[in-house]
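Lab manual, section 2.4: Encoding a predicted structure.

Procedure: take the sequence of the chain (84 residues), apply the prediction step described in section 2.3, and record the output as structure tokens. A sample record is shown.
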Amino acid sequence: MQTRDEIFATLRDAMVELFELDAERVTLNANLYQDLEIDSIDAVDLIDHIKRQTGKKIAADEFKSVRTVSDVVDAVYRLVNPDN
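Recorded output:
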């Protein structure tokens, strides 16, 4: 089981690597689109990265409601911990 903190750390590292962001910019409250300038193609890359890491895919419908890094952490947490 992964905690939200572990998911955030993994996600932050992935975003730094994938999108060449400074790690300090990737906070739980950061808006993906406004603060981090992630576009729809980047979002698809992020979904693909999450799938490779977890072996599970986030539904596109669920990702549409994601606005902040915290939202992504919550979505991944629900994905890897379906009983919670």
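Check your result against the sample. The chain is about 55% helix and 0% strand.
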